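The material for today's practical consists of a large collection of protein records. An example says more than a description, so a record of this kind follows:
***
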Amino acid sequence: MRKQVLEEIAQAMVADGQGILAADESTGTIKKRFDSINATSTEDSRRDYREMLFRTTEAMQNNISGVILYDETIRQKAADGTPLTEIMVAAGALPGIKVDAGAKDLAGHPGEMVTEGLDGLRERLSEYHQLGAKFAKWRAVLNITDNAPSAACLNANTHALARYAALCQEAEIVPIVEPEVIMDGSHSVERCYEVTSAALTALYEQLAMQNVHLEGTILKPNMIVSGTQNAVQADVQQVAEMTLDCFHKCVPQAVPGIVFLSGGQSDELATAHLDAMNKIGNLPWKLSFSYGRALQAAPLKAWGGKAENVAEAQAAFAHRAKMNGLAALGQWDASLEG
């Protein structure tokens, strides 16, 4: 019965033309976003901003299947007293929760990170389930250099992802597993392919060891892209082809869906890459999005922390959600951006 529940949630998360809004910025991260628009970050202002997104009916009903929340947000009530999770559910979106405690330095491996947060996770997941969470997210951070990530780093991070995933499924929560190979660096697109392949291979070995039910999971990976400091940048079609080639080799067909992170790409480029992959087609899994900045940058800028700009900001969010919804179907075109 639990497996069936997990499978139904996972399928709903990758419904046709829909993807996930990553609104799980930590208090520190959202303060930086607010600083960029000269807005003050308080508990109320953070709530108002996120409530504005969740009340964008057109986006939430048509193109957003779920929202990844931060601990503060899953407990918050809207200005009128309605729990934010109820607003989401009423619009047809599933509440999710970020449960990792962040990436910390990996002892003995300078420049490499390991994500922490397994201590007490079973109890936290039980509480989050009671608060309405249907899925969760855990992010591993993998930096690329000539010598990194090391086998030790891949091992530590994928083992933690697998243990987290098993605990989620025990609590009837679908785990999003996120092994993010970071874009920063001067590495080639071929090096990104090599590292991503190694990370995904290690991940699925660990998930198998922990008896994780793949049909009740979602993968949130990076795309195969050139390092940001590399003079040679792979074009949209090359990114799409290399990414799919990697996934066909490394991601089991039992996985119901892959929702990409935008990883610092511009709004439109993240959309173009997703669309190009879906246009290639012939895929065993759904390919969609789980964007944070690539969905939020435009509405954040339009809002500017001012109540009188809410309608304009909601229109900007609805547009980006619609564009990515079309990309998830392979039906986007640059001319639609206006």
The domain at 2-337 is CATH 3.20.20.70 (TIM Barrel). The beta strands are 19-23, 64-69, 94-98, 103-105, 113-115, 135-142, 174-181, 218-219, 257-260, 286-291.
